[in-house]
Amino acid sequence: MSTATKTFEHVGTRPIRHDGLDKVTGRANYGADYALPGMLHGYVVRSPHAHARIVSIDTSAAEAMAGVKAVVTGSDIPKTNAKLVMGEAALDLGAMGDNALAHDKALYEGHAVAAVAATSPEIASAAAEAIRVVYEPLQPVMNVDQALAPDALILHDGMVTKGRPKPDAPTRTNVALRMELTRGDLDKGFAGADVVIERTFTTPMVHQGYIEPHACVARWGEDGQVVVWTSTQGHFVVRDCCAGILGIDAARIKVIPSEIGGGFGGKIPVYLEPVAIALARKAHRPVKLVMSREDVFRASGPTSGTKIRVKLGAKKDGSFVAASASLYYEAGAYAGSPAGAGAMCAIAAYDIPNFLVEAYDIVVNRPKVAAYRAPGAPAAAFAVESVVDEVARRLGKDPIELRLQNAVREGDQAAYGPEFGPIGLREVLEAARCHPHWKAPLVPQPGRKVGRGVACGFWFNAGLNSSATVSLSADGSANVVTGNPDIGGTRVAQALMVSEELGIPVERVRPIVADTDSIGYNDVTGGSRVCYATGMAVIEAARDAQAQLRARAAKIWDVPVEQVGWERGRAIALNGASGREPLTVSELAAKLMHTGGPIIGSATVNAPMAGPAFGAHICDLEVDEDTGVSRVVRYTVVQDVGKAVHPSYVEGQMQGGASQGIGWALNEEYVYDAEGHLQNPGFLDYRMPVASDLPMIDTVIIEVANPLHPYGVRGVGEVPIVPPLAAVANAMHDATRVRFTALPLSPPRVLAALKQRG
Q1: What pTM was estimated for this model as a whole?
Q2: Collapsing DSSP states into helix, strand and coil, what is residue 167?
Q3: Contact at 8 Å (CB) between 587 and 570?
Q4: What is the per-residue pLDDT across 81-95, written as a single tens digit (0 to 9) for each?
Q5: How far is CA 651 from CA 436, 437, 623, in A?
Q6: Beta bridge partners of residue 424, listed in sequence order
Q7: Which CATH class is domain 34-138+211-262+267-299?
Q8: Alpha-carbon gap, residue 680 to 515, rounded angstroms
Q9: Which residue, 50, 634, 680, 594, is CA-closest to 365?
């Protein structure tokens, strides 16, 4: 389904991705693949305690070992109160530096406290063992309830709750932020409701599960110039964060991104890079640091565990009249959970006249959280969409029809403020309602119950800053250069955009991800912004190159440039220039040196927030009532993508997000003991779904053009992970008649609930 009117020749096709062959044959270089002459190997010493004061660190034995060239501790990273503005957020460089190497306290198990660099990994590991750290263990604060308890131990002295309402005076607290969204008269709204459902939901801390661990190589040159090779979603952020954390000029740092083996938001923060630079500065030699899988789980950013209370009121006819939601998000050891984004997304799909949504950012003794695909939204949707499902059942209404009745549309004011432009939620729901999956009968197998659930999801999508260049070669091929690491196929999408504008085959466009010295600033690959915002820059740069080609044709024809048009890769004569034969890109390129020299188109954009995007998922689930084991047997994703530049990779994003959400719903969770020790820091015990756990995930692409983008593109990568938690939980309720309010729906939890139900 499409409301886009523009027709395309290249965009919307499915060419093979430019980087695919190198990746499947193993030639692509990832973070741990880099090696330099004279390179040392680093090893990070991590706290065995979830909460402890660092009394002393004795590095003398390690420094005396043969082969050890440098040892660093928190004293090598200056304390700072500086902030780095990234897009619309401000990064706390002091917290980031303390997270890289602790200064005074270890705030979670796995918190880095020291690091060594040696001539071999074995020597580095032995030297790390020789470092003596004296701790004063403290009681850990492990979850929302413990953090909010009246007698809770406070993680950070001097922390004051920001946001509103502002406290009268500074108080000791673990609440870093409170924010709220409100409209109408909440009490009056609930008083007029015929049905009111209120429930409290919890979701666990989960990890993004990227296959490639964090890795980097840092070199501190004798001229004071720093070069970092790293696996990252944003090498400009790595440059600026490392400069701020270490107190050096960003102009002295060059960051080269490697290929990236998954990120999903988890490779936006810096962990190893400042430490590797500090070691390289001391050792006067390059240093490589690579996290083990245990390090990744214990010490890189998962997403928040949550506790969310939702109350929804509706009339007998199904109209939603009031809603309230209180969202409590675990930030980990430092402030910065996605509580605000969760609040923005919680009820965004529905037109509700009276509401209050409040969100709390709460520090606990766990790793500082990082983004994970639509950060904050999946947990909020799990809570809200579960209650919407319950309202539908209470009123005896079809759950899709109820959502359609209350769905926001163009012109409605979003819960978080602005008025919606063209959006595709209603088209998405109508497509889901008409899909064969929704109409198919459920057929239980012997000894198993089967259920069907549906849920909606929303993400606002980011815009932010991007730059690009498009240069033409003498043979008529083109290079497109941007500064965004390619995680989900953005190289081929950008090449398609250049093909569309210049009219040359996509195979003749070479997409390049450049380092921080070779292209203008680009914000991170995240927030579903790259195809949208960086795509805008690519299109504008290609149009700049096209305009220069028209000028060259005008020079060849000796006519004003206004008499030269462009059509399907050719300069064509207009009006007074009629009679001249069209000139192709190749013909024009062959004459560049005789008509004015090289052609390089360039563009920078500060893109507005991308077009809001909605999705709806349908899930069929079967449950073995004797064991509690469940399995998704059919799954359909419907999503408004604006315009699918490369439909195969759009479908892959939709399927990938759904797969991750299904894993989150059924099995995934961080399991800690009472002392704050992570019990499952590896893929064997942290149960992510594999291909054999899932059915083929069907996809339906809806295209309601986003007017903010030249091609109508919306962000794609965030929305698919938002509905699955609720869709799976609603299917579980349909199968078992038990309303589960805590995830994951693991066999022991399901079996216990079934036994309690009787």
Answers
A1: 0.97
A2: coil
A3: no
A4: 999 887 657 889 999
A5: 18, 17, 28
A6: none
A7: alpha beta
A8: 36
A9: 50
